[in-house]
């Protein structure tokens, strides 16, 4: 089964989980590699559940996120196996894209291995959050914690889905979206979008420098609406702001179209890697904020997988819907009366 992030659990990990679920071993360390969650280490452990918790600490490496599937001694009647702990170690020093990927993917364990088998999920950013003492602190917190407020429940859902924003400390401007990742924005991006809002170049293409974790300017130029299709990349995902200056019914308009293009292999495009597609998808709101910070609004949002999907006639009809033809009402025929004799 594949999660919405595009990541799936490998057969090797599923097989390893089944073996431990029969009581043969204590925990599995797993990592995301090549769009799959794969086993990296299996600990046989002892019969001492609490003592074995400290063995987890030996597998945690600074700045390297991982999952730990830890078998408890509690039996699970539904699966005829055991109850498990799902430990998510996502260090603060990890790259932003890895934080997002690991946070948003952990739901796949319940979907694939069974939601009822995990008695607890523990998320931590430092080694001290785990081990015997970390587990005891978690239990105390759970026992003492008051019911979550509506806002706290929403925040928990964001963390579960990986949509909670992460903050990056840099000297650049940073945009944050409630549904995305916060990346620093190059000054060139901010300046190009501002110029577009002030009647400068009307086509601005924006991308993400994944290695350096920042939003960057790819291209800015002057274009007609018919030119847009030719300017969209067939290989790289991109965010595009296009200002369409035009006249409609004797009125002048400056309509801003926000295009999110993510090639998927159709119509001669080259499919972007899963991680790249996911990173771009969750950054849409953050990039839009660059525009709204200039007191401008998007007139139309368009999501496409190929330049061919940008249909000029459809775009025009969405911005200026054609009038709906009124149905002609047919006159009701006069009733026929019998002729008097």
Automatic annotation (TrEMBL):
ADF-H domain residues: 4-140, 180-320
Entry annotated with the keyword Repeat: yes
GO cellular component: actin filament; cell cortex
Keywords (A to Z) from UniProt: Actin-binding, Cytoplasm, Cytoskeleton, Repeat
A molecular function GO annotation: actin monomer binding
Domain of life (superkingdom): Eukaryota
Biological processes, Gene Ontology terms: actin filament depolymerization; barbed-end actin filament capping
Pfam families per record: Cofilin_ADF
Location of this chain's protein in the cell: Cytoplasm, Cell cortex; Cytoplasm, Cytoskeleton
Function (record text): Actin-binding protein involved in motile and morphological processes. Inhibits actin polymerization, likely by sequestering G-actin.
Protein family membership: Belongs to the actin-binding proteins ADF family. Twinfilin subfamily.
Subunit structure: Interacts with G-actin; ADP-actin form.
Name of the protein: Twinfilin
């Amino acid at each position: 089964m594949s999660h919405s992030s595009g990541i799936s659990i490998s057969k090797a990990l599923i097989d390893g989980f089944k073996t431990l679920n029969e009581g043969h071993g204590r925990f599995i360390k797993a990592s995301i590699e090549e769009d799959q969650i794969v086993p990296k280490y299996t600990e046989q452990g002892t019969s001492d559940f609490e003592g074995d918790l400290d063995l987890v600490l030996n597998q945690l490496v600074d700045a390297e996120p991982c999952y730990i599937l830890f078998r408890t001694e509690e039996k699970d009647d539904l699966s005829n196996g055991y109850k498990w702990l799902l430990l998510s170690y996502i260090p603060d020093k990890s790259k932003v894209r890895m934080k997002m990927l690991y946070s948003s993917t952990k739901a796949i364990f319940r979907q694939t291995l069974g939601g009822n088998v995990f008695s607890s999920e523990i998320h931590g950013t430092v080694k001290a959050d785990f081990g015997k003492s970390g587990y005891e602190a978690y239990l105390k917190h759970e026992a003492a914690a008051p019911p979550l407020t509506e806002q706290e429940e929403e925040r928990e859902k964001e963390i579960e889905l990986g949509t909670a924003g992460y903050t990056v400390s840099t000297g650049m401007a940073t945009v944050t979206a409630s549904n995305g990742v916060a990346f620093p924005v190059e000054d060139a991006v901010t300046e190009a979008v501002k110029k577009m809002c002030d009647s400068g170049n009307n086509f601005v293409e924006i991308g993400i420098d994944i290695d350096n974790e920042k939003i960057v300017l790819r291209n800015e130029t002057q274009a007609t609406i018919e030119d847009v299709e030719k300017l969209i990349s067939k290989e790289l995902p991109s965010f595009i702001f296009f200002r369409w200056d035009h006249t409609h019914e004797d009125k002048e308009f400056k309509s801003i179209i926000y295009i999110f293009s993510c090639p998927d292999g159709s119509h001669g495009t080259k499919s972007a890697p899963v991680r790249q597609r996911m990173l771009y998808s969750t950054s849409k709101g953050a990039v839009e904020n660059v525009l709204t910070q200039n007191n401008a609004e998007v007139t139309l949002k368009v999501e496409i997988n190929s330049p061919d999907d940008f249909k000029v006639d459809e775009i025009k009809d969405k911005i200026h819907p054609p009038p709906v033809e009124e149905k002609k009402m047919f006159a009701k025929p006069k009733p026929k009366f019998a002729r008097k004799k």
